């Protein structure tokens, strides 16, 4: 059953399946058709996210086990709801070997293990390298033997039969694995990882036996009607995503199937047997259309003033991607290079091609043109490598070549770590657009561009997911909506931030600009939350301090900067006053982008808690507990007829979300087409409107500019002479032309249903 909408819940040990089941009546009242849950299979002990699955055969006992899933399914069905689950085919958790029975067996028996084919291990490199030891040449002296296990502090590893005699080091040297210094992971590890995380080992789901073993439980849920839809995590890490998705579709022909695929602007999703993506492409379009694209030059000037930087975003991305390819993913680069030993400069050439690759990956034979683009750009940047590049591309364009298959897996990791997790924290001219699935150089999206994208989605992928927030977004949707207001007040922002960086200086000016934007975007924000964000941003950017080598002096300066915001009365008042000035227009943007996302072509997802204002930051901040009791109470008041103002309670957003979701669920026939609607009048460009085939959606854009014009004046919408009911106010309208000032008198958005 295709959902009308979904609601994402971060099911985890402190919010297990029982607590999730208790949301069923609230979600039904809210108007969604399906609950969309985080991964449910058994994950590593204490996992707060579930993407480190250790046992594919059962629902996690920490979440409530199989009984918990059955109870959740029953509660949802009683409320008329379905269930969509997140699955993780690319990797498994190996941080605690004892709890992962397949990994334990591989460590114990090596290549002879019946599970040796489960994991993507380069056996030609000898023993499995486990980078877990302290950075101490005598670390192995801390090993102990306890029964048939080798113990290193709190870590335990199996001892193969017949290898247990002698000292702990002698026992260690006989095993199928080798414990090594943790710093050797990025350069020497010999199993494929999820990005650069050694605790997540790559699975070989291209092997039918591995596919069956890792999907049997999930597919049973589908067959038994416990689950209606599947969200596939990180398919780009797989050897052949297209083949995998065809097998998954064959195994679950009726399921709604979406994938976490990040499309670069202009990139087309391959025509796989799926319903679409998880919506980052839609997010980029929706956020962008509420940005004033005409002020880009102001932000270029400000960024240059603050940072003194002259590097373009393209050059920065090339630098960060190449660093990731050659350092963070050096082991993977080495494995690729060994597949083409006859090409002397293969490591340099492969790294350069990956750094120049314009999208996450190709799907040979599809997407070969991206390899050609990478080859051209790599040749321009490194002409001395042209001969090597030509030799490599001849191999990399051939789907039958092992190096071609692995290079496709490599480029996605290089892109994700180099751009999302590094460049986005260094290129900080306008943080509202530094988001997964978006190109920060695309400062804004025009109304015409938005309509063109929406029409294409309606035609090509009408059942794809759309989203505004996920557990992977860098900033919550309402933070981005408020930051979009900065594009309308570049002079005001320039004035205050130039003063603030002098009052509370930081050695890294680019990072400082990011922190100031986040502060006003999420204000009022708890000091510890802002500092936690600042530390994460600093370490991700890896300019001064890093996760591997924290710079204590720099992080002390970072603490001093954040403390100054709260402890300096004049500065604190200025930040508070400026945030207050952009908050009301931020609310206008929030309501507009939410209504647009919920009603544009696709299946909208509501991330947990975002039915009210939500000023969450990057993970783990966006996984904080949600106050569902407050949301229930407010929804009850709305259903009793309360007409909320647009204020800091967020009830106006809850009104928009609930009424729109209910209409989507109850009247799907009203959302079957897409036609742009254009306003007429002197400020018509401040209207974003479209007709879905019986419903007309109207949103205000660029509210500061609108107020400078003195309001809507003579702006009108042409409707077809029918009578219409506005959903949020229950007002009726008729005639051929509708005055926008009248329509948007109560709220800055409207949802018109043809009577």
UniProtKB/TrEMBL annotation:
Organism this protein belongs to: Actinoplanes octamycinicus
Protein name: (1->4)-alpha-D-glucan 1-alpha-D-glucosylmutase
Listed InterPro entries: GH, GH13_cat_dom, Maltooligo_trehalose_synth_4, Trehalose_TreY
Keywords: Isomerase
Matches recorded under Pfam families: Alpha-amylase
E.C. number(s) listed in UniProt: 5.4.99.15
Top-level taxon in the UniProt lineage: Bacteria
Signal sequence segment: none
Upper classification of the organism: Bacteria, Bacillati, Actinomycetota, Actinomycetes, Micromonosporales
Record-linked CDD domains: AmyAc_MTSase
Gene Ontology molecular function: (1,4)-alpha-D-glucan 1-alpha-D-glucosylmutase activity
Kinase listed as a keyword: no
């Amino acid at each position: 059953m295709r959902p009308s909408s979904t609601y994402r819940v971060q099911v985890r040990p402190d919010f297990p399946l029982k607590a999730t089941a208790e949301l069923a009546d609230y979600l039904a009242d809210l108007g969604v058709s399906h609950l969309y849950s985080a991964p449910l299979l058994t994950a590593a002990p204490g996992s707060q996210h579930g993407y480190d699955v250790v046992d594919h055969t059962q629902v996690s006992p920490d979440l409530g086990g199989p009984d918990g899933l059955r109870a959740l399914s029953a509660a949802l069905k009683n409320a008329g709801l379905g269930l969509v689950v997140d699955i993780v085919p690319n990797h498994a958790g190996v941080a605690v070997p004892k709890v992962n029975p397949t990994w334990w067996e591989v460590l114990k028996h090596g290549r002879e293990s019946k599970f040796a084919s489960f994991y993507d291990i380069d056996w030609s490199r000898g023993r499995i390298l486990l980078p877990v030891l302290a950075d101490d040449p005598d670390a192995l002296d801390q090993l102990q033997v306890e029964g048939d296990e080798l113990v290193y502090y709190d870590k335990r590893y199996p001892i193969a039969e017949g290898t247990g005699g002698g000292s702990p080091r002698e026992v260690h040297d006989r095993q199928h694995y080798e414990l090594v210094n943790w710093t050797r992971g990025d350069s020497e590890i010999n199993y494929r990882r999820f990005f650069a995380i050694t605790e997540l080992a790559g699975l070989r789901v291209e092997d039918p036996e591995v596919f069956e073993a890792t999907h049997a439980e999930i597919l049973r849920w589908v067959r038994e009607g416990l689950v209606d839809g599947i969200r596939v995590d990180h398919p780009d890490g797989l050897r052949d995503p297209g083949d995998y998705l065809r097998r998954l579709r064959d195994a679950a022909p009726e399921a709604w199937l979406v994938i976490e695929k990040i499309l670069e602007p202009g990139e087309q999703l391959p025509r796989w047997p799926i319903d679409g993506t998880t919506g980052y492409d839609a997010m980029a379009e929706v956020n962008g259309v509420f940005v004033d694209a005409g002020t880009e030059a102001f932000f270029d000037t400000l960024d240059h003033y603050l940072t003194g930087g002259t590097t373009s975003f393209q050059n920065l991305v090339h630098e960060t991607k190449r660093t990731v390819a050659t350092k963070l993913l050096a082991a993977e680069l080495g494995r690729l290079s060994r597949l083409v030993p006859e090409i002397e400069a293969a490591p340099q050439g492969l790294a350069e091609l990956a750094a120049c690759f314009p999208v996450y990956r190709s799907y040979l034979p599809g997407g070969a043109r991206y390899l050609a683009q990478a080859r051209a750009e790599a040749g321009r940047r490194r002409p001395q490598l042209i001969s090597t590049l030509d030799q490599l591309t001849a191999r990399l364009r051939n789907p039958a070549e092992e190096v071609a298959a692995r290079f496709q897996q490599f480029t996605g990791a290089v892109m994700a770590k180099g751009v999302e997790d590094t460049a986005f924290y260094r290129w900080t001219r306008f943080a509202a657009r530094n988001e997964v699935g978006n190109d920060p150089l695309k400062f804004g999206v025009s109304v015409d561009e938005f309509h063109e994208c929406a029409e294409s989605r309606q035609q090509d992928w009408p059942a794809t997911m759309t989203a505004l927030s996920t557990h992977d977004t860098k900033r919550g949707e309402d933070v981005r909506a408020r930051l979009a207001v900065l594009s309308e007040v570049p002079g005001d922002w320039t004035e205050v931030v130039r003063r603030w960086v002098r009052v509370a200086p930081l050695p890294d000016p680019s990072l400082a600009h990011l922190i100031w934007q986040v502060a006003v975007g999420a204000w009022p924000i708890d000091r510890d939350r802002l500092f936690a964000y600042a530390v994460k941003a600093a370490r991700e950017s890896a300019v001064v301090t890093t996760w591997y080598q924290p710079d204590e002096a720099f992080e002390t300066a970072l603490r001093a900067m954040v403390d100054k915001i709260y402890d300096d009365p004049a500065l604190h008042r200025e930040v508070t006053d400026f945030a207050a000035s952009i908050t009301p227009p931020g609310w206008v943007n929030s309501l507009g982008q939410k209504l647009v996302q919920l009603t544009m072509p696709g299946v909208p997802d509501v991330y947990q808690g975002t039915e009210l204002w939500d000023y969450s930051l990057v993970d783990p901040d966006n996984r904080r507990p949600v106050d569902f009791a407050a949301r229930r109470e407010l929804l009850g008041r709305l259903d009793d007829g309360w007409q909320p103002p647009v204020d800091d309670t967020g009830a106006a957003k809850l009104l928009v979300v609930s009424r729109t979701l209910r209409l989507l669920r109850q009247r799907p026939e009203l959302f079957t087409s897409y036609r742009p609607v254009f306003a007429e009048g002197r400020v018509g460009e401040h209207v974003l409107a479209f007709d879905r085939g019986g419903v007309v959606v109207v949103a205000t854009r660029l509210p500061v500019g609108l107020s400078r014009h003195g309001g809507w004046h003579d702006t009108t919408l042409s409707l077809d002479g029918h009578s219409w009911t506005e959903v949020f106010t229950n007002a009726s309208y008729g005639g051929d032309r509708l005055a926008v000032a009248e329509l948007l008198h109560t709220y800055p958005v409207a949802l018109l249903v043809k009577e």
